[in-house]
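Lecture notes, unit on binding sites. The following record was shown on slide 14. It pairs a sequence with phosphoenolpyruvate.
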Amino acid sequence: MRKKLVAGNWKMNTTRQTAVQLARELVAAAGQETAVEVVVCPPFPYLLLVREVLAGSRIALGAQNLHPEPKGAFTGEVSPVMLTDCGCQWVIVGHSERRRDLGESHEFIRRKLVAAVHHGLQVILCIGETKPERDAGQTFQVVRAQLQDSLPALTSDQLQAVVVAYEPVWAIGTGVNATPEQAQEVHAFVRRWLGEQFDAKTAENLRILYGGSVNASNAGALLAQPDVDGVLVGGASLQASEFLAIIRSARR
Ligand code: PEP
């Protein structure tokens, strides 16, 4: 039985004050949540502040990015060692905003994935097609290539530290979410691929999240799909009431 996971990607939002306030509200209402696993990913400068607020709660801390090297001359970058040192248990890898806007290659994403797992972090690996790719009927091809370029670098055992987030690029921050049927179709495809590439147990156990304009109104129907094991939430994770309602939908 896969436990549902609800992760909030705060992106480049919040201030010291609002980050702490948001974390406090989540801890007050969902700090002892047991039915759903909850993760929040604040911006780097607020990780330690949010960590203090989360202390003693069941809400886990995640980062939005990492560099694959443990240390060195990589100006402006943050290593997996630093993330674990700051109390992160999770990290997002392969987000489309980084693939598209920062030109992150498949190879770089694979190195990040491997480094994160090597350093004991759990990874949310994002994949998903653009609108032109969907319109051209290339969704499965694109998603397969993104999986193929990253996950085979890990063993089945290491894959226990990974969740895949299907995030169609056309749904991110647009207010247009994939329908539950569209999400289920791709999630089922990802699970079949995992079974073929690894084994039945890995395919059965690995959680596949949906991300892209998830909110309190559409989360329930998405989460009701058999292969939707949770959600990665951007905009709606910045409002405690909205994020808490999404967590509640994942309980059912
Ligand atoms: C995201 O960026 O991971 C995301 C899902 O954003 P939004 O929920 O705002 O579409």
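Take-home: The chain has eleven helices and eight strands.
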